[in-house]
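Lay summary

Proteins are chains of building blocks that fold into shapes. Our project writes down both the chain and a compact code for its shape. Here are two examples, one after the other.
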Amino acid sequence: MLKYAILGLIGLTVAFAVYVRLAPSDPARWHVSFYPKPPDTYPAADGFQIVRQIDDPAAVLARLDTIIMATPRTVRLAGSVEEGMITYVTRSKLWGFPDYTTVYAGADDTIEGTFGPLLKVDGRLRFGQSDMGVNRARIEGWLAELDA
């Protein structure tokens, strides 16, 4: 009996791992900009958002795209530099859990409309309720490299 319970548990674990890695990523769900917010950081249990003022949106987005695409296990899901918004999927090393990061660089879309061009980065998880700070660390690393 114990043998079948252990085999069942192993089977469920493998099925879950396969589902996490193969579940489709719908660009219509993930390639969206978050609510307009003024420059600041916005931590949340399921991810991290940051908004900054920038000078040249196209140049900043192109440079950040290069940095992000050099990140292991990261692919572009939707968008382009020309569009001004790109969404990426970065998967965890062990289980392959997907985290989605949308980067926007363009006109100030806040209610105030007084900040000038903005860079908005929104990282969020797909599975679970807490990313344990992974998205924040990844985004802050990208921005540190951008600033270097």
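And here is the second example, written the same way.
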Amino acid sequence: MRALAGFLLLAAAFALGSWVGWWMVPAVAVLWGLLRPAVRRPILSAALAAAAAWAVWLTVDSLRGQGAAGRLASQLGSVMHLPAPALFFVTLLFPALLGWSASALGCAAAGRFHSRSGDAP
């Protein structure tokens, strides 16, 4: 239960940071990596929380009914030869990769990242 609460707080931090700008995703992720609470996979949790936060923003934007996001997805989908829902998931890769890489850097900077090969950092 504590892990879920921690994940939801991390996702909320990513969502609030994203409200400021996309560049806050790596800032929050680096801070997460530096602080690194006692979770099994902090880098994976940062990537999933960042994608979940952006999924919430995209869903809220699409439910607002302004239609701008839907029109843009339709036009981009026709240019890229992808259906509009596929663009939704492709868009979520951006914060996931930002969260993953920045939290890995934060963990490495904190000296808590150990490779699976057994090499010492």
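What can we say about the second shape? The chain has a mean pLDDT of 84.
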